[in-house]
User: What shape does this take?
Amino acid sequence: MGLSVRVVGRSTIGAGTDSTPGWIMRIVRLANFVAPRSGGLRTALEELGAGYAAAGHEVVLVIPGERPGRAETRAGLVVTVPGPLVPGTGGYRVITARRPLARLLDDLEPDRLEVSDRATLRWTGRWARSRGVRSMMVSHESLDGLLRVLAPRRMPVPLSRRLADRLNSATARSYDVIACTTEWAAAEFHRLGVPNLVRVPLGVDLGRFSPVRRDPVLRGSLARPGERLLVHCGRLSPEKRPERSVEALRELRRRGVPAVLAVAGDGPRRPALEALADGLPVRFLGHIADRDRVARLLATADVVVAPGPIETFGLAALEALACGTPVTVAAESALPEVVGDAGLTAAGRPEAYADAIERLLSRDEADRRAAARRQAERFGWPASVDGFLRAHGLPRLIGDRRW
Assistant: This one.
């Protein structure tokens, strides 16, 4: 092959031979349900984008917002497209206008398309195929689980599964690759025998989230001497089941365990949770945008509670482990395979969560904190970026550098 130079719009984005491992690609990524106060999804988008850029690729992220905009970030160019608010979600927006988005994609001329929304952006797989663009859908949620949790009336499992199977089959046909972050998330595609499925775990910033972030001053502001500090870190929305953390605290207090709970996060369930927590030692801290503050909080806790039943990976739980803090997780979710022996599972009921928390607290503190950190060290972002690049059919990130 001879020398190739590709020009998109007014900028040259790559030069090399088609067979050269260093060939620069323009990776365009689409995501809905991203808000200024988003948690794990926003973190994953930023870290993967920064990793792609560190590998030499040109990266564009398209997300919804109140008004149009463009901003250069460490994760590449972020293009904001106006999208309406989704009622009852506490600030999430979606891109609903297909023709303008299709025109934007035509203008961007991606070499790779990566989509993080099976619900409203699945049509972009057909757009990519019609243009000869390799495409990947990243499954950040269990569609079967979402249908059961968010349906106006509780949807029977057979019905939710049939509907999820139909939608997942259509998604698998539309994209070249379906990427799932855990075996749990991949199960609904395995059930269909999807041939283009890959599993790529997400990662954690092992430098920022570290046991050295433990903060005695912060602890003193949240708990008195002798009290056990529990932390719930996540969006306060129905699918996350934050009420389980409050009810677990109630059960622990009933048992005479001197525990307190700090809730980091915001969302549509907050007023109901504040009412539920009346009379209990619960501190609602709101959304914490500063990731260093989040790290200090997680490192200072004795146990972190992650009760979401349809979590497909759970970055907050992994960040807690990186801080040396064990986690109690929902047995129904993907988190048991993420936390391993560094955490314990609970099956829904407040008593089960209280049992798991007490068992974790009964372990030697140095041992439980060391085990948590060891488990987190299995999930670095460079390895995750490598996995996603391979899923895109691209060379891996060279070395183990941070970006």
About this structure: Confidence is low (pLDDT under 50) at residues 1-22. The chain has two domains: 4-203+380-391, 211-376. The chain has 15 helices and 16 strands.
